[in-house]
Amino acid sequence: MKRIAETIMVTFAGGLLFTLLHVPLSWMLGPLTAVLLWTALVRRSLAWPGKLRNMGLALLGYSMGLSFTIESALQISTQLPSMLIATITTIVFSLIVAAWTARQTSVSFESSAIGSIPGGLSQMVVLSEEIEGADLAVVAFMQTIRLLTVIFTVPFLAVHGLANEAVQGGNAGQANGSADTMISSIMAAAQAIASRPLFSVTLLLCVMAAVWIAVRLRFPTPYFLGPILAASLFTIAGYEPPHLPSLLIILAQWSLGIYLGLGIKLSSLGNWRKLLPYSIMGSVAIVAFSLGLSVVFSSLLPISVMTAFLGTSPGGMTEMGVTATLVGANVSLVVAYQMFRILFILFVVPYLLKWGFRRFRRNPNPDPRTGES
Fold first, then answer.
1. Over the stretch 170-191, which tens digit does the pLDDT of each residue have?
2. DSSP 47
3. What CATH number corresponds to the domain at position 232?
4. Residue 366 maps to a domain
5. What is the mean predicted confidence (pLDDT) over 18-31?
6. Is residue 370, in this structure, part of any structural domain at all?
7. What is the Cα–Cα distance from 278 to 284, expressed in whole angstroms?
């Protein structure tokens, strides 16, 4: 309990500071930064219960699921080919960056490839244990740097580079919220629940059932995906589930920021100083590639540059979904693009990598004239 209390005080200071500095996603990035600095400089370990993290993910997932409508579902179905193109081109570009990083740092190509592909941090670390020649510490470090780079650069670019002033100002108020706004949103949510108690209980049971099913089916981030699916099914069916008070959204972002900070281990690699600059440059290159891809998509498809950028960015589904909510992008499309890429990387990429690495090891230096090694 003392460590949890210390975590709350340290991360509250970080969130408050980032809010005063008007940093995007202040109640996620502030606690994340506070955890990293506190553990690195003060060298005291912090703690956060997994149940609070899961509760925060469920709240965020439910809130984002409310943005799904019949129109957005139809739009998602028409953009499945573009999701596949975005995923494949991003993976190919990541492998090109990985080859350059491996050549510059002398780490194995297997480690660099798994460390550069924008999948989930924990999933890619687990995959590295199954690939011969991959170094778990290198993969964890590169994925950590990628995650940090995306979390800090993409929201900044989205808010200060792509969002117009009206969207920026309006959603900043939703994200941070004044005391009056929080109180009014809490009262509105309480009134909505009190007016339809049976519907609210049914909705809660459906959300819990969706989480249970997602966990049993081993979905990525089940406590996030389950509520998204439950809330979206209600909205697509024509019902109007109550919206969450902004205070709960802030608490959910706070919990997620703490969890992300505790999961990042910058000291997991001995020669990290040599790998750090190339990992940062590679991560920035992938973000820039996503931005260029989003410009192309917005000119060919009925999708804004903002939505395309957040959908194709090499970040996590939760982080990009929260950013989409902040800047007024199409949350359902952003989550759909991110979900498609994550599922593709989880279920298809491991088999392709294993096959490719086995073939590479059998024929590492082919003769360009004969094709023989």
1. 333 344 455 555 566 666 666 6
2. -
3. 1.20.1530
4. no
5. 85
6. no
7. 10
- pLDDT tens figures, 328-346: 888 889 988 988 888 788 7
Joined together, the tokens standing for residue 36 give 């990293």
Total count of domains within the chain: 1
Tell me if 73 is assigned to some domain. yes
Select from 131, 112, 82, 151 the least CA-distant residue to 315. Answer: 151
pTM score, whole prediction: 0.73
CA dist 134 to 102, 139, 147, 364, Å?
A: 12, 8, 19, 16
Compute the distance between CA of residue 332 and CA of residue 320 in angstroms, rounded to an integer: 11
Identify which has the larger pLDDT, 318 or 264.
318
Burial of 246-277, coded b for 16+ CB within 10 Å and e otherwise, reads bbbbbbbbbbbbbbbbbbbeeeebeebeebbe
Q: Decide if pLDDT at 265 tops 90.
A: no
- 3-state SS, residue 129: coil
Cα 220 to chain centroid distance, Å, stands at: 11
Tell me the two tokens of residue 73. 């579902």
pLDDT at residue 184, rounded to an integer: 65
Cα 215 from chain centroid (whole Å): 18
Q: What's the whole-number mean pLDDT along residues 203-217?
A: 89
Q: Do the beta carbons of residue 63 and residue 251 sit within 8 Å? A: no
For residue 162, give the H/E element and its range: none
Structural domain span for residue 216:
2-43+51-360
Structure token digits, residue 356:
């490719």
Q: Is 155 in contact with 170 (CB distance < 8 Å)? A: no
In the structure encoding, which two tokens stand for residue 71, read together? 């129109």
Please, are residues 177 and 250 in contact by the beta-carbon 8 Å criterion?
yes
Q: Which pLDDT value is given to residue 235?
A: 86
Distance (Å, rounded) from C-alpha 207 to C-alpha 61? 10
What tens digit of pLDDT does each residue of 277-325 get?
Answer: 999 999 999 999 999 999 999 999 888 999 999 999 987 777 888 888 8
Task: Return the pLDDT at 81.
Answer: 92
* Number of neighbouring beta carbons within 10 Å of residue 44: 11
E strands in 86-129: none
105 part of a folded domain: yes
Which amino acid does the sequence have at 157?
L
Going by C-alpha positions, the residue among 368, 313, 299, 338 that lies closest to residue 157 is: 313
